[in-house]
Amino acid sequence: MTAAGLILAAAIGYAFGSVPVAVWVGRRHGVDPRTVGDRNPGYWNTKQTLGARAALPVFVGDTAKGAAAGLAGLAVAAALDIHAATGHSATGHSVGRSLVYVAVAAAMVGHAYPVFARFAGGRSILTFAGGMAVVSPPTFVVCVVLCAVVSLVWSFEPGARVGVFSVPVVQLAFDNWRWAAATFALMSIVGLRFAMAARRHR
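-> structure tokens emitted (202 positions)
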């Protein structure tokens, strides 16, 4: 992994993550989600404040940010391959996928600390989910199904938790344990944001 590729993937990922969808949607409705409810500028707080219909663009946008970052990581990896001087790839599958992880991690950090919204962001759950659609599409599909089933039986909140927290375990069915561990590292960003929010509300 070249330094240039790493920096480029991280920069693009962070830029995508920094798009403050919830803040922009809230502004259209005369509300700043950072000052109402649980003060988290994400889908759930926007839904609780403005309703599901108004919050739908936040759900789609925050998920798309993670997916776009992951695709950007793939594009950077492909560009490095294109510029390889010989048949020896400059990236390889492992390094290329690592750039996808870097881009998704940067997008999650961007969502949590968006440069376009005074560094006051959310918990990165949907951005993580969108990134997983690129990192491991089969894992993403299985976890979405799990989320839907649990949501139908109980409600969306426990369904979402099952869908998110089962990701590294489900990924083991499709990937080497090292990639599942890398996914768990991504999830630690979400955990850190929840811990910080809990500390703030004490």
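Confidence is low (pLDDT under 50) at residues 82-92.
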